[in-house]
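User: My instructor asked us to take a sequence, write out its structure as tokens, and then describe one feature of it. I'm not sure where to start. Here is the sequence I was given:
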Amino acid sequence: MNDHMFVETLIISSSFFAIAVILVASVMFLERKG
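Assistant: Let's start with the prediction itself. The structure tokens for your sequence are:
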């Protein structure tokens, strides 16, 4: 069991999730303004 690989995967997935949340939030904000 490689802990380093797990931590790396966790960081990548969490950053990808954060980017997706920011994209959705910005789209909702723009739709609300327009």
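For the description part of your assignment, you could build on this observation: The CA atoms of residues 10 and 16 lie 10 Å apart. Try explaining in your own words what that tells you about the chain.
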